[in-house]
């Protein structure tokens, strides 16, 4: 599961069994890359196209000084606008050394949040990132408010969802 927020990204692996779901604490990191003041040089780092010296996701959160950092976020007005930046962030989040340790994405179903009314060209870019870049077997991209409502209804003591009453979700993020 990936909550692809504009400010922070939350991710985790959930193991589902016939009787229950094992839900660990989520991995949370800045959804950005950053250059520490005066330390960045150009070049390639592994499969990433980011310049050397750049910090990604959890590396930013572990930095001792934020005062001279130049941040680059993948999101603009709540939507992903820089897919190359998002690719580098996801690579870090899925890695074993800095993230959740995702080793076989083809065997995983991805649930990633997406803003309401995302334009179709942005959805196609998400499809490309999910299937072609990372190789996930399948994915779904509901808005976060739908997941919050579903969680409330599943935890409701009522046997019938229709008897649990109305649910108001207020999403004031990005």
Overview of this protein structure:
With about 170 residues, this protein is an alpha+beta fold. Helix content is about 25%, strand content about 20%. The protein has helices spanning about 60, 85-95, 120-135, 145-155, and strands at about 1-5, 10, 15, 20, 25-30, 30-35, 55, 70-75, 75, 80, 110, 140. The two termini are about 20 Å apart. The relative contact order is 0.15.
Q: What profile does the largest beta sheet have?
A: 3 strands, antiparallel
Radius of gyration: 18 Å
Q: Element order, helices and strands? A: EEEEEEEHEEEHEHEH
- Please report the distance between the alpha carbons of the first and last residues: 19 Å
Low-confidence stretches: 39-46
Order of neighbouring strands in the sheet with most strands: 1-2-5
Characterize this entry briefly.
Helix content is 24%, strand content 20%.
Give structural attributes.
alpha+beta, 3-stranded antiparallel sheet, 24% helix
Layout of secondary structure:
Layout: E1 2-4, E2 8-11, E3 15-16, E4 21-22, E5 27-30, E6 32-35, E7 55-56, H1 58-61, E8 70-73, E9 75-76, E10 79-80, H2 83-94, E11 109-111, H3 120-133, E12 138-140, H4 144-155
Parallel strand pairs: 11-12
Antiparallel strand pairs: 1-2, 2-5, 3-4, 6-7, 6-8, 9-10
């Amino acid at each position: 599961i990936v909550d692809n927020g504009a400010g922070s990204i939350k991710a985790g692996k959930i193991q589902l069994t016939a009787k229950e779901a094992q839900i660990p604490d989520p991995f949370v990191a800045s959804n950005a890359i950053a250059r520490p003041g005066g330390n960045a040089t150009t070049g390639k780092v592994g499969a990433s196209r980011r310049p050397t010296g750049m910090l990604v996701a959890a590396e930013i959160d572990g930095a001792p000084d934020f005062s001279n950092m130049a941040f680059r976020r993948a999101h603009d007005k709540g939507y992903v606008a820089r897919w190359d930046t998002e690719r580098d962030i996801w690579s870090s989040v899925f890695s074993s050394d800095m993230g959740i340790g995702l080793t076989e994405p083809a065997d995983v179903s991805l649930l990633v949040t997406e803003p309401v009314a995302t334009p179709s060209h942005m959805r196609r870019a998400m499809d490309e990132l999910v299937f072609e870049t990372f190789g996930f077997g399948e994915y779904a991209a509901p808005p976060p408010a739908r997941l919050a409502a579903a969680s409330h209804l599943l935890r409701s003591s009522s046997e019938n969802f229709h008897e649990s009453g109305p649910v108001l979700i207020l999403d004031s993020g990005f």
